[in-house]
Amino acid sequence: MTQELGGFAALGLNPNVLAAVIATGYEEPSAIQLQSIPVILAGHDMIGQAQTGTGKTAAFALPILSRIDPAKKEPQALILAPTRELALQVATAFETYAKQMPGLNVIAVYGGAPMGPQLKAIRQGAQVIVATPGRLVDHLRRDEKVLSTIQHLVLDEADEMLKLGFMDDLEVIFQAMPESRQSVLFSATLPHSIRSIAEKHLKEPKHVKIETKTQTVTAIEQAHLMVHADQKVAAVCRLLEVEDFDALIAFVRTKQATLDLASALEAKGYKVAALNGDIAQNQRERVIESLKDGRLDIVVATDVAARGLDVPRITHVMNVDMPYDPESYVHRIGRTGRAGRAGRALLLVTPRERRMLQVIERVTGQKVAEVRLPDSQQVLDARIRKLTTSLSPLVADAEASHGDLLDRLIADIGCSPRALAAALLRKATNGQALTLAEVEREQPLVPSAGAPRERRERDGERSGERRAPVPLAEGRVRCRTALGTRDGIAAKNLLGAILNEGGLVREAIGRIQVRESFSLVELPEDGLDRLLGKLKDTRVAGKQLKLRRYRED
Ligand code: ADP
Ligand code: MG
Predict the structure, then answer these.
(1) Which residue, judged by its Cα, is nearest atom 9 of ligand 1?
(2) I need a labelling partner for 67 at 20 to 30 A (CA). Which of 115, 399, 402, 522 fits?
(3) Which of 468, 509, 448, 552 is nearest to 225 (CA)?
(4) What is the dihedral of CA 218, 221, 224, 229, to 10 degrees?
(5) Quick check: 509 and 523 in contact, CB under 8 A?
């Protein structure tokens, strides 16, 4: 019954390829697959445009495998991918779809691994080469004939390849292949540079374009949160407390930010790693593997480092820094909601980025709802919920295994069962704050930036962004000094000076905000005059600190 074979059966794929696809459990071809497979099978050149997560790999792998002759031991298909991870992912996909094609070999060719074995595998007749452009050009320099038998070429994520500066390499590669080959190009976007490559090297290409508007985004629940730039880390920590995630990827703009946020989250006990362009390739692969198998739950990444990353466990994407363009936003959130699963995407928006939010909403055709930062009560509730979830499965049989011991401990210690249970809880929760007062103390409330009380700093001093005043923790007051970044001051200088000269413990000092022309420090109200007296002559970076109580209202 053809019905049972699903929509793939009607596409004209080689029966062995079809059998392998059915075995993967795919039920229906995706839109890009439905449209591309017949075109590629018919031997046309093609330009395919579709966003991440739409199933582009199978869209070219299935028809190309169908057109390869496994009996011929020579390279027949070349797939170019922008990064090593993507090359490996595509190679693995080819291997999966070729499971029922004995004699068909796939070789991944990328930098950072020795060239010898790669070249050997090519010469031994791997029919499919999946390569990054840079390394392939290195091979061509050693043996200009390696690509002389290629009949099918695919440029996967072509726009990304150009962004990574592979234009010249691509030209070299095009020259090394027979003119008669079939060329297929897949790209999420079609900037001018891609169009001109297509014009030059593709022969009357057919265009297949999948409108992405709802495609990638519908399965993903999107929300945004207004926050000030300097409160992002605190906001992320709060959100993580209440969001029920399996694996999460957090996007930031810079390499340094990946490291900073990852270490802040690590300090909170999360299993987290940074992923950026500076991290060695094999280490990056290990990070992705760890995220897949649960040794890591959070990856903090830059856009380039996370491009194409396909980890089904990812339930959440957190846009900690705004993406540079709406396309990147769609790419980013496409990391979750893979293959029809539900996903959630959160976007942190600083006041000056509101316009970008509107652009994103226009491009995705969807409203991105505003959510508020969870308050202490919600954080507490989430913690207790997690505790309940982790303990309730144990209740069923823990009494059988530990009940006698419990009786003995109660007798030996001479306490009530409630007292003992409380002691065990304290131990098990490792001193985590589990009362409202404790949670509040631990994380002074970070308000949403969008609140109407937003206004300029006192004295009319501009500091880039307008900021809402942060409520003070109980018993603290804010003090001000006229020293700021223009005087070469950093928070740690102020902290050091106040600790040394004021004789305070670290915990006594709250938030320190350093602006261009002034700084604010939260100090204990109790004994403030005495403290300011001690600090009267203190100098920081060669200048008088002159700390004063700061009254805002
Ligand atoms: P893209 O290259 O467009 O970003 P991929 O080819 O990486 O997308 O596919 C995304 C995910 O969807 C992969 O996990 C893949 O196994 C899965 N997938 C692809 N085609 C189908 C299909 N027809 N049915 C179900 N899942 C699919
Ligand atoms: Mg892809």
Answers:
(1) 55
(2) 115
(3) 448
(4) -100
(5) yes
pLDDT at 467 over 50: no
Q: Is the CB of residue 48 below 6 angstroms from any atom belonging to ligand 1? A: no
Distance between Cα 380 and ligand 2 center (Å):
41
Burial bucket for residue 353 (CB in 10 Å: 0-12, 13-18, 19+): buried
d(CA 273, CA 360): 28
- The domains found in the chain, sorted by start residue, are 3-209 (3.40.50.300), 220-373 (3.40.50.300), 377-442 (no CATH), 453-549 (3.30.70.330)
Question: Per-residue pLDDT averaged across 404-432, rounded?
Answer: 93
pLDDT of residue 220: 85
pLDDT higher than threshold 60 for residue 459 = no
pLDDT at 148: 96
DSSP state of 205: P
Residues 6+ apart with CB under 8 A from 11: 29, 34, 37, 38, 41, 62
Q: Kindly indicate the confidence band of residue 446, based on its pLDDT and cuts at 50, 70 and 90.
A: low
pTM score over 0.85: no
Give dist(CA 272, CA 501) in Å, integer.
Answer: 37
User: Residue 62 Cα, ligand 2 centroid: separation in angstroms?
Assistant: 14
Give yes or no for a contact between 355 and 325, defined as CB atoms under 8 angstroms apart. no
CB 86 within 8 A of CB 52: no
Q: Report residue 423 as tokens.
A: 């002691």
Going by C-alpha positions, the residue among 227, 238, 239 that lies closest to residue 447 is 227
Which positions ≥6 away from 197 have C-beta within 8 Å? 155, 158, 162, 170, 185
What are the backbone angles phi and psi of residue 549, rounded to the nearest 5°? Answer: -60, 140
Q: What is the pLDDT of residue 354?
A: 85
Q: Is 445 left (phi over 0), alpha (psi -120 to 50) or beta?
A: beta
First to last CA, the chain: 76
Q: How far is the CA of 186 from the centre of ligand 2 (A)?
A: 8
Higher pLDDT, 470 or 507: 507
Q: Which of 30, 96, 220 to mutate to test the pocket of ligand 1 (most atoms within 8 A of CB)?
A: 30
3-state helix, strand, coil in the chain (%, to 5): 45, 15, 40
CA distance 140 to 173: 8
Neighbours of 158 (CB within 10 A): 29
> What pLDDT sits at residue 141?
93
For residue 104, name the pLDDT band (cuts at 50, 70, 90): very high
Percent of the chain past pLDDT 70, that is, above it, reads 90
